[in-house]
Specification:
Layout lengths: L1 E6 L5 E6 L5 H7 L19 E4 L1 H4 L7 H6 L11 E3 L11 E4 L6
């Protein structure tokens, strides 16, 4: 089983076990991780699950698709080169992910 390490904007860290195929957003919501609102429930129609992916993890993720790229321009906190929507980032077997949540999602 893999894990997702969530770091808040304040620096608090929480490590959560994650099953392959789950989105980072699903892992956060199931485990009550603060900092991810997920208003649309993962349907890619909001930007309230914005995260910053650790640089080392970006290389193993598939590139974002056009719709995710468009949605990231609507985030409450300015997007960065390592910004992703956590509903679009899937956990893979044997690979841990490290993400930081922004100060706010709304």
């Amino acid at each position: 089983m893999s894990k997702v390490v969530f770091t808040s904007a304040a620096g608090d860290t929480r490590e959560v076990a994650a099953a392959a195929g789950d989105s980072v957003m699903e892992v956060a919501m199931r485990n009550g991780v603060p900092g991810i609102v997920a208003e649309c429930g993962g349907s890619l129609s909001c930007a309230t699950c914005h995260v910053f992916v650790a640089e080392a993890d970006l290389a193993v993720l598939p590139p974002m698709e056009e719709m995710e790229d468009e949605m990231l321009w609507g985030t409450a906190v300015d997007r960065q080169p390592n910004s992703r929507l956590s509903c679009q980032v899937r956990v893979t077997d044997g690979h841990d992910l490290h993400v930081t949540t922004p100060e706010t999602q709304i």
